[in-house]
Amino acid sequence: MAFSWGNPLNWLRSYRHLTAYIWDNTDKKRKEWVRAQRERHGDDFVLDRTDLERFSFLLLADTGEGDQSQRVLVDKLLKEGKSTEFAIIGSDVVYPAGRSHHYLARFHMPYRNYPKDIYAIPGNHDWYDVLTGFMIHFCDNQFHRKKRNERTVDETKLRDMRAIRSNETYQPNMYFCLDTASLRIVCVDTGIRTHIDDDQMAWLRRVSATDKRKILITGDPIYANGKYDGRLAELDQIVKNYGYLAVIGGDTHNYQQYRVTLTAVGSKRDVWYFVNGGGGAFLSRTDHITESSAMRFPGDVRVSDFDVYPDREASKGFFDSAGMGFLPDFIRWRMPVALLNKDRPPYYKSFMKIVVRKTFIEFQLFRVENFGQPWLDAGPWKRIRVS
Ligand SMILES: [Fe+2]
Question: CB neighbours of 34 closer than 8 A, spacing ≥ 6?
Answer without folding.
Answer: 173, 174, 199, 200
